[in-house]
UniProtKB/TrEMBL annotation:
<comment type="similarity">
    <text>Belongs to the TMEM161 family.</text>
</comment>
<dbReference type="InterPro" id="IPR019395">
    <property type="entry name" value="Transmembrane_161A/B"/>
</dbReference>
<dbReference type="GO" id="GO:0016020">
    <property type="term" value="C:membrane"/>
</dbReference>
<feature type="transmembrane region" description="Helical">
    <location>
        <begin position="378"/>
        <end position="402"/>
    </location>
</feature>
<keyword id="KW-0325">Glycoprotein</keyword>
<feature type="transmembrane region" description="Helical">
    <location>
        <begin position="430"/>
        <end position="449"/>
    </location>
</feature>
<keyword id="KW-0812">Transmembrane</keyword>
<feature type="transmembrane region" description="Helical">
    <location>
        <begin position="176"/>
        <end position="197"/>
    </location>
</feature>
<feature type="transmembrane region" description="Helical">
    <location>
        <begin position="212"/>
        <end position="230"/>
    </location>
</feature>
<feature type="transmembrane region" description="Helical">
    <location>
        <begin position="12"/>
        <end position="34"/>
    </location>
</feature>
<keyword id="KW-0472">Membrane</keyword>
<feature type="transmembrane region" description="Helical">
    <location>
        <begin position="141"/>
        <end position="164"/>
    </location>
</feature>
<dbReference type="Pfam" id="PF10268">
    <property type="entry name" value="Tmemb_161AB"/>
</dbReference>
<feature type="region of interest" description="Disordered">
    <location>
        <begin position="47"/>
        <end position="80"/>
    </location>
</feature>
<keyword id="KW-1133">Transmembrane helix</keyword>
<feature type="transmembrane region" description="Helical">
    <location>
        <begin position="251"/>
        <end position="278"/>
    </location>
</feature>
<protein>
    <recommendedName>
        <fullName>Transmembrane protein</fullName>
    </recommendedName>
</protein>
Length: 457
């Protein structure tokens, strides 16, 4: 049999091609969001064009009495204005595949979704194939998942950077805060990789990195903080509305019981996973007595931990597998929460319309009309903000399982950079960093909402 056909490279290439064709033909990215409800706020709706009779679009919310009878004429006076209730109606539309494909940024989401699914599936396939360390990089087929993973991460970061500077999609103050937090994240990352944060606080080792490597990781950490600030705060906003923390009692705004449970589980899982690499917390879950390589600080901390919870915990090897599974689950839960989060974003425009409608006797609906339009227009920009962080976590987690023997085959690259550290160990650290930043921004935003420093309007 020819060399090419006898290697795993052919299996990886054929698998990726078939999976990409399958996702393209069935339009899986569009069907993933099929059936979401969006809203239209028209300038004027006459009774002849209303949705009575079952045809066309139907009004999601109206004033009582407008379904079966005409609005009663009111007496006009010189001091009062007559408000036309036909201009206050809002309509709900269920999006199909054709309508989803017309939205701005759909092509970017379509490409990011397919590339992420193909790359993650290829990385999983490599785990189940028999890969020989001495067979060569082409024959064992590991080159394809490595390249797909790196390309997927770079593509996701470029997309999130592109939408972060979209002029009409966010406020100027949010962009300024993103830059400020990005700079602070750089200095924070520089303190971590330079050893100012000791290992008994954070369970990562950066001693194998040289000065340029540490600077590169710190810059990348700052970029991740700046890019994921707005998506994380939007995630907190969706959680706040989806779980009905504002107590609006409008069933059209918040989620059902299943989606609400998914939002709670997703948030708690992200926070829990971010704590698993913080040593004071992780030591409560690990039985350190089976490990003889302990320092004096570890002995003291373990004694305090035993006084609190006793001698309980997992073996260090089992704990490493456990937190990797938790990281995988947090990424998958974020993707499963994508659909309810996007629906909450669309429902937020209805809440704005409702607030403006009852703000005064003669409401000004221009703001709510613009709000409904922007939420409808930039729907897939928000989809990318929810999808890209989870995709980056899954891809980095897959790259962290690349074998050292494979990375040693890149002789020219490894002469310049420590490949094992950059691709294997730093991939796991950056995946944790994304989850940690996501948990911090989400928790702080929810705290500000709870204490009234931020509000939904």
């Amino acid at each position: 049999m020819p060399f090419f056909l006898s290697s795993n490279l052919f299996i990886h290439a054929l698998f990726c091609l078939c999976l990409y064709v399958f996702l393209s033909l069935l339009e899986i990215p569009a069907f993933f969001l099929y059936g979401l409800n969006t809203y239209v706020h028209p300038d004027d709706v006459t009774p002849n064009n209303s949705s009575r009779g079952g045809g066309g679009v139907r009004a999601a919310i109206r004033r009582p009495g407008t379904f079966d009878s005409e609005p009663k004429p009111r007496k006009k006076s010189k001091e009062k204005f007559e408000f036309d209730e036909n201009k206050a109606q809002i309509f709900r539309l269920k999006l199909n595949v054709a309508q989803l494909q017309t939205r701005v940024y759909f092509k970017q989401f379509n490409s990011a979704f397919k590339s992420t699914v193909v790359a993650v599936s290829c990385l999983l396939l490599r785990r189940f194939l028999n890969v020989s360390e001495d067979s060569g990089i082409l024959k064992n087929g590991s080159l394809i998942p490595l390249l797909l993973g790196l390309v997927g991460v770079c593509k996701g970061l470029i997309l999130i950077a592109e939408i972060s500077f979209e002029r009409s999609a966010s406020k100027r103050s949010e962009k300024v805060l993103s830059v400020i937090f990005g700079v602070l994240g750089f200095f924070w990352g520089l303190a971590i990789v330079s050893g100012m944060v000791p290992k008994w606080v954070l369970d990562f080792d950066f001693e194998s990195l040289d000065g340029y490597g540490k600077l590169f990781i710190a810059v990348l950490m700052g970029c991740l903080v700046g890019f994921f600030y707005m998506p994380a705060t939007r995630n907190a906003r969706a959680f706040w509305l989806g779980t009905d923390q504002i107590r609006c009692n409008l069933s059209i705004i918040y989620c059902g019981w299943f989606a609400r449970t998914l939002l709670y589980v997703n948030y708690l899982f992200v926070v829990f996973t971010s704590l698993l690499w913080i040593s004071p917390f992780s030591e409560l879950l690990v039985d350190k007595k089976v490990d003889g390589t302990r320092g004096p600080h570890s002995i003291v901390r373990n004694r305090y931990a035993e006084e609190l919870v006793g001698r309980v915990g997992m073996l260090p090897s089992d704990f490493d597998k456990f937190r990797l599974w938790c990281m995988l689950s947090s990424g998958l839960l974020q993707i499963l929460s994508l659909r309810p989060n996007v629906q909450i974003f669309l429902n937020e425009a209805v809440l704005c319309w409702y607030q403006r409608l009852h703000a005064s006797k003669v409401p000004d609906l221009d703001y709510s009309r613009a709000k409904v339009f922007l939420h409808n227009h930039y729907m897939f920009l928000v989809v990318l903000q929810f999808f890209v962080p989870a995709a980056v976590v899954l891809l980095l987690l897959g790259l962290s399982h690349i074998d050292d023997s494979l990375l040693a085959d890149f002789k020219y690259l490894c002469d310049l950079l420590p490949c094992s550290i950059f691709v294997k160990e730093m991939s796991l650290f950056l995946a944790w960093w994304v989850i940690f930043v996501w948990a911090i921004f989400t928790s702080v935003s929810l705290t500000l909402y709870r204490h009234g420093f931020q509000f939904v309007y």
